[in-house]
Q: What sequence folds into this?
């Protein structure tokens, strides 16, 4: 059956199976489906917000948003880089299952010990996205911002979104100030800030569609490089720098302030339009902070690493009258959980035709139970300048095991006692190490994870330069 016909029929079936009498909407006091605003930040570290402990960056609007919902202390991106995490949010599947395990198009490094597997250079059209299911349920949807999940045949409008503004196959913007040179968003006046422009477009979408249930996927380009910000804000933070503070990049701080102001504007508009109580707001980053730009301490390392700094991120969800304001959750959650959570909130069932790795977070959000999940997983069979060599990892309870795929080396950490992952327990706890390793291997088989293989031309010497470094020298 042709895919679009299948989705249309599936959507009708789900609407019938999930009528209000069958699956009551969870938002008390409203007789229409909740709206969704999913705010995804690029490269924001776990400690980059005031509500997560930053003393340098100023984020009053985002901090207030966090205080109005549930803040997660153990929230994870499904990958240490961006494209796989984005795919996991939209599909509810682990990147390993999708065979989309690196940023697109990925890094290549000379003289690597392992040959990394080929991986999908786009989110396949055969995958069912949350936007497609919501569309069939009567939602109007927009992707406003970064896409980075394939070239034009795989753009957001081919994946269930009615509107695409800013989404292309590119990862970072050529410029944060107009002219942007982004083909899917018309340039504004010269010098216009891209973060401000995305806020303008998001607000316009909400104003236009306020009478309908809407899904706004708002993936910001910021705070990804290139580091560019408003000069007056940079000057403000330059006067605030404390050399003893590990977070001390004035331009990065200025980018975060512009982001905070954009989020504040959107939240104010929801209130003005009397949409606040019927709108779920989700906030997360696509991976950990870039270690050469920000500090993720006490977490170890940053983006592109197997350690906590690479994939633990800020995350909170607001839903007035359903999620207790000011609540905190320490249960480990991961970006694949957004897909089933949003569908349950909308009163829709999961598609029965495909495996979903995520779990609905409603029991945690309503403080009426746990997830019953045994473990969460990562699989990154690639090399990255952030420090990663090919690895897989599992977190079960407070234990986290990393397997390095070049040589089979194992590291075991107890995160509650050692959040900085400095004390490797693999030799001291061989039984626990073996248990988690077996579970990790079993999971890789279950999701058909692609494994790197030994490079027959590897000469035993140190890794060579990256492909992009070679191109830059030409």
A:
């Amino acid at each position: 059956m042709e895919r679009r016909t299948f989705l249309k029929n599936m959507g009708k079936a789900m609407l019938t199976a999930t009528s209000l009498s069958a699956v009551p909407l969870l938002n008390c006091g409203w007789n229409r489906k909740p709206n969704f605003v999913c705010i995804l930040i690029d490269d924001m570290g776990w400690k980059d917000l005031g509500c997560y402990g930053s003393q340098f960056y100023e984020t009053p609007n985002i901090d207030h948003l966090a205080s109005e919902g549930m803040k997660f202390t153990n929230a994870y991106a499904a990958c240490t880089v961006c494209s796989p995490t984005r795919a996991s949010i939209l599909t509810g599947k682990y990147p390993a299952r999708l065979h989309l395990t690196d940023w697109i198009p990925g890094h290549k490094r000379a003289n690597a010990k392992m040959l990394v597997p080929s991986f999908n250079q786009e989110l396949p059209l055969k995958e069912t996205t949350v936007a497609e299911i919501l569309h069939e349920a009567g939602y109007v949807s927009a992707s406003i911002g970064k896409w980075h999940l394939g070239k034009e045949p795989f753009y957001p409008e081919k994946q269930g979104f009615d509107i695409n503004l800013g989404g292309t196959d590119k990862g970072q913007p050529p410029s944060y100030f107009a002219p942007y040179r982004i083909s899917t968003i018309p340039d504004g006046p010269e010098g216009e800030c891209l973060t401000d422009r995305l806020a303008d477009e998001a607000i316009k979408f909400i104003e236009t569609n306020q009478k309908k249930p809407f899904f706004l996927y708002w993936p910001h380009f910021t705070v990804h490089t290139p580091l560019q910000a408003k000069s007056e804000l940079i000057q403000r933070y330059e006067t605030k720098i404390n050399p003893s503070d590990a977070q001390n990049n004035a331009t990065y701080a200025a980018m975060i302030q512009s982001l905070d102001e954009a989020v504040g504007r959107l939240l104010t508009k929801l209130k003005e339009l009397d949409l606040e109580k019927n709108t779920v707001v989700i906030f997360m980053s696509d991976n950990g902070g870039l270690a050469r730009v920000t500090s993720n301490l006490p977490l170890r390392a940053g983006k592109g690493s197997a350690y906590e700094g690479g994939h633990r991120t800020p995350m909170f969800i607001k839903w007035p009258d359903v999620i207790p304001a000011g609540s905190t959750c320490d249960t480990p959650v991961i970006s694949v959980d957004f897909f089933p959570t949003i569908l349950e909130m909308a009163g829709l069932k999961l598609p029965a035709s495909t495996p979903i790795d995520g779990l609905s977070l409603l029991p945690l959000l309503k403080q009426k139970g746990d997830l019953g999940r045994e473990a969460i997983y990562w699989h990154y069979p690639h090399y990255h300048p952030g420090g990663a060599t090919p690895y897989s990892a599992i977190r079960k309870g407070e234990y986290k095991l990393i397997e390095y795929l070049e040589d089979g080396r194992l590291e075991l950490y107890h995160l509650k006692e050692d959040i900085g992952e400095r004390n490797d327990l693999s030799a001291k706890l061989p039984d626990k190490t073996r248990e988690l390793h077996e579970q990790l291997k079993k999971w890789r088989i279950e999701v058909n994870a692609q494994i790197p293989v030994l490079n027959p031309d590897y000469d035993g010497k140190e890794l060579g330069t990256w492909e992009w470094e070679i191109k830059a020298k030409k």
Residues 1-30, 469-474 have pLDDT under 50 and may be disordered. Residues 377-456+467-473 form a domain with the Arylsulfatase, C-terminal domain fold (CATH 3.30.1120.10). The CA atoms of residues 144 and 201 lie 7 Å apart. The longest helix spans residues 250-272.
